Amino acid sequence: MEEKKVTWLELFYDLLIVAAISTATHVLLHVEKGYIHSDYLLKFVLIFIPIWWAWVGQTMFINRYGEDLFHHRIFLILQMFFALIMIASLSVDFDSYYRSFLIGYIGLRALVVIQYLVVQLCSLFFDSWIRYLILYTGILVDILIPIIGRKRLVNVPTNTAHLFERFGLFTIILFGETLVSTLAVIQPKQGDWNSILFTIVSFVLIISMWWQYFDNLEKKVNKSIKTAGQMIIYGHLFILMSLSMIAASIRLLFMHEVNYYFILFFVFGSVLLYFLSTSIVFHQYRYKKQRLKIYHLGLFLGILVGFLILNLIISVPNILIMVELIVFFVIYAKLTTV
């Protein structure tokens, strides 16, 4: 397979998109009466998906046809301009910034799916929920087109090594953003042993997740497999989304503003989503002799469910919940990377 390297401009572009994801994650930090209202959960998903899909469109173009040429750089720089518009439009008060968000998204996607441009512009003539219905119907169609045309895409397979590298680099930037933003919230100070201990535990948790993801990526994945790459693409939607949810969970656990039972289900639901999505994505590309067995799945699910039931029976400190997650991810990393 022809070697294709990630360019510095691509990494610069990734930083902008991760900034957008960070803004989307902040939506999950809006707590009312001990709960994250369903409106905020829905807004998080509705903001996250267009960001992810805009990044995927640019990534897939470069994966199949991109070279570090002058006109490709100009194209990517223009995309960064529209990405900035979209980032500036991300807010809990999403309705007020709808038009500028739409312009940013159209600018990112126009050269990839021309027909989608028409669908999006039509939404400007409607108010309230109708325009959102049109917007996300267009996004859904845009996302489903590659799945429907998968047989044709197989004839032009992705460069698997480059695709994993792109998603891996994007993921590690998101890991870094998670760590930095968590430290910004916790703000450990000399003598404040509670925040210092929480910082240490948070760091160990993030590192254990990093260990599991990147050891699998580097040691267990057969990058010579030729496919349409859709398992990597669509699977990473849930990996990246769950990472953002786990990042929000860490901050919410530290702030003690969320109802105990709500945060339990939110935290363990986020971890379950991350576990299932990483397992499915890596399973298809793992070397056959190293693929996990069904009893591994049962073991990991058993550990998660066991911790959840224990915490439902006995109220435990939030930092102990963090320690339980570390135990899970250490076991998950150990058994999937040996």
TrEMBL record:
Q: Which UniProt keywords apply?
A: Membrane, Transmembrane, Transmembrane helix
UniProt name for this protein? Low temperature requirement protein A
Q: Which InterPro entries match?
A: Low_temperature_requirement_A (IPR010640)
> One Pfam family, short name please?
LtrA
**Keyword Iron attributed:** no
Domain of life of the source: Bacteria
Q: Which residues cross the membrane?
A: 12-29, 41-62, 74-94, 106-126, 132-149, 169-187, 193-211, 232-254, 260-282, 294-313
